[in-house]
Amino acid sequence: MENNEINPNSPYQPNPGSNPSIYDRDLVITPMSGEFLRETAKWAKFLSILGLIGMGFYLLMVVLFFLYSLGASTTYGNGFNTVAMLPLLITAIIVIALYIAPIWWLYKFGTNLTSALNTRNNDQLTTSFQFLKRHYKFIGIMAIVMLGLYILSFIGLLATGFLAVLADKA
After folding, report:
1. How far apart are CA 150 and CA 97, in angstroms?
2. Which chain regions cross the lipid bilayer (predicted)?
3. Is 66 a member of any domain?
4. pLDDT tens digit sequence for 98-125
């Protein structure tokens, strides 16, 4: 018969939730790991601020492009159709809204991590890692969705090519 007990001396624990004693141990942040975490927090804040600025510029460009198309449609008559620009405007705003949340969570991770390390506050450290988890979970889900859209686009491309070949033969 095989032994299904979890060995507490084993370095590999398959699921911390299945072994509550793993939470009884204190995690110690050494000076070296603290410095690594401080540097990680600085980069997280830098990248998130850069991302927020980029989303602001993107929003500005979208609004300016929409205003340009609005002015061009009234100036040139039927050269531009502002109503036709609305789907592009709505899509751009949706993209901005989708990207703001993970960028903000990355920023909150960086600020909470810096504060937790400075004050040696475990609750704030936990909060910072919750924001990091949200960030990566969202990015992971978005990657899966985008991969699915790429696959659907590829299938659509193949179907279009196949139908074009059939139409040529007919």
Report:
1. 21
2. 46-68, 88-107, 138-167
3. yes
4. 999 999 999 999 999 999 999 999 999 9
**From the CB of residue 135, how many other CB atoms can be counted at a distance below 10 Å?**
21
In a domain, 6, yes or no: no
As a dihedral over the C-alpha atoms of residue 67, residue 68, residue 69, residue 72, rounded to 10 degrees, the angle is 120
- In degrees rounded to 5, what are phi and psi of residue 143? -65, -40
At 76, phi and psi to the nearest 5? -100, 5
User: What total number of domains does the chain contain?
Assistant: 1
pLDDT number for residue 136: 96
Give residue 10's pLDDT. 44
Q: Is residue 115 included in any domain, yes or no?
A: yes
Has residue 27 been placed in a domain?
Answer: no
